[in-house]
Specification:
Blueprint (H helix, E strand, L loop, with lengths): L2 E12 L4 E12 L8 E2 L4 H5 L3 H13 L10 E3 L2 H11 L4 H13 L3 E5 L2 E4 L4 E2 L3 H10 E10 L2 E10 L11 H14 L1
Antiparallel strand pairs: 1-2, 3-7, 4-6, 5-6, 8-9
């Protein structure tokens, strides 16, 4: 709901006669600020569809609590043991080790990246938080070409990653790890 923050009335008066020759007014409104958000890029949403429900809960917590792309560690969240306990409680997992397992699986699928000890970054090709120019800067550090092919036997995910800046951000060098994780999940189900 908008609210009035300023009203201004301008009058041009003839001081010899006291007559108002011209009058104008303006009103300035203030709109409520938009709540914080994280963009999910629709062209890559299918990649996320197969995430199990318990992984979605952890991912949503990370998305909600990550910093903006403009920060030193753009789109990152620092997950201490206490925060992992909070995540477990909020998403209905009984153990902190379950949260660690989900984080590992999400990083294997390139949904997030394990940047450093306790620091995780959202994949800037799947999510964006902040100004578009800053998100593009994160994307320029690594180039990803991802393809999803649907067959009668399921789906095949293939991707190639070209890392421009090894030290700053890598979605992972070895795509074999992604394919191995997918194959392990297929065998488990």
């Amino acid at each position: 709901m908008k609210r009035i923050t300023q009203e201004t009335v301008n009058r041009a008066i003839d001081y010899t006669t006291g007559e108002v020759k011209q009058e104008s007014s303006s009103v300035t409104y203030s709109l409520p600020s938009e709540p914080d958000f994280v963009k999910v890029y629709l062209q890559d949403l299918l990649y996320l569809v197969d995430l199990p429900r318990y992984q979605w809960g952890v991912l949503l917590w990370v998305m909600k609590n990550c910093n903006y792309a403009s920060a030193k560690y753009g789109q990152c969240v620092v997950l201490t043991a206490a925060l992992k306990e909070e995540i477990a409680e909020s998403v209905g997992l009984k153990l902190v080790s379950s949260v660690n397992s989900v984080l590992y699986k999400l990083s294997k699928k390139h949904v997030i990246e394990h940047v450093s000890r306790s620091i995780y970054r959202l994949n800037p090709y799947l999510f964006g938080r902040g100004k578009w120019q800053e998100i593009q800067q994160l994307q320029k550090i690594a180039c990803v070409d991802m393809h999803i092919k649907y067959t009668r036997d399921g789906k095949e995910i293939s991707s190639t990653i070209e890392t421009v800046d090894e030290g700053a951000f890598s979605l992972k060098k070895h795509l074999d790890e992604l394919q191995e994780a997918e194959q392990e999940e297929k065998k488990a189900s």
